[in-house]
Design goal:
It contains 7 helices and 5 strands, in the order H-E-H-E-H-H-E-H-H-H-E-E. With 139 residues, it is α/β, with parallel strands linked by helices. Strands 1-2-3 form a 3-stranded parallel beta sheet, with no helix packed on it. Strands 4-5 form a two-stranded antiparallel sheet.
Length: 139
C-alpha cells in the first residue's frame, strides 16, 4: 500500500481547510510520497512531517529530508521492520548527522544543554523513594 492513501489525501484537504499547522505522513518510502500531499509549502500551508518507518525511507533519506518540513523517526517500527541489530547505532548516527547538513534541526543538533538527554532510555526504571527512616531507598 502506498502512503498516503486516497482516503488520507481527502482527510488532508479537510485538515487544511480547518487550519491545521502540521500534517504527518506515515510510512513514507520516498520523496514522491510527500509530493502527493496536496498542501501549499510552509509558511503558506502546514508543515509536512515525514515519518521514517521503512527501509525504503532510509535508502531515500536525503530526498525525503529535502522534500519535508520536518522528519520524525519511529525508532521501534524502523528497528523491527528494517534495521539489523548490528547496524542500529550506525544508521542512527548517520541519520542525525544528515539533518543539520540539510539545514534541518534535530534534537541532538538543537540541544544546547549537554546534561539534557537526547533520546529516551530503552528501559524505564521506577523512581527511588526514601523510606520512612530516610536512610534506605526502596525501588
Amino acid at each position: 500500500m502506498r502512503a498516503p492513501t486516497d482516503e488520507d489525501l481527502v482527510a488532508v484537504e479537510r485538515f487544511v481547510e480547518l487550519g491545521a499547522d502540521m500534517i504527518a505522513v506515515s510510512f513514507v518510502r520516498s520523496a514522491e510520497d510527500l509530493a502527493r500531499v496536496p498542501v501549499e509549502p510552509h509558511p503558506t500551508g502546514p508543515i509536512v512531517v515525514a515519518k521514517i518507518e521503512t527501509r525504503a525511507a532510509i535508502q531515500d533519506l536525503p530526498a525525503i529530508i529535502e522534500a519535508s518540513g520536518a522528519v520524525m523517526v519511529a525508532r521501534a517500527t524502523l528497528v523491527v521492520s528494517a534495521v539489523s541489530r548490528n547496524s542500529r547505532s550506525s544508521r542512527r548516527r548517520s541519520f542525525v548527522s544528515a539533518l543539520p547538513l540539510a539545514g534541518r534541526p534535530s534534537r541532538r543538533h538543537r540541544c544546547s544543554r549537554p546534561w539534557l538527554p537526547t533520546r529516551s532510555p530503552r528501559v524505564l526504571r521506577p523512581p527511588t523513594w526514601p523510606t520512612p527512616s530516610g536512610t534506605d531507598r526502596v525501588r
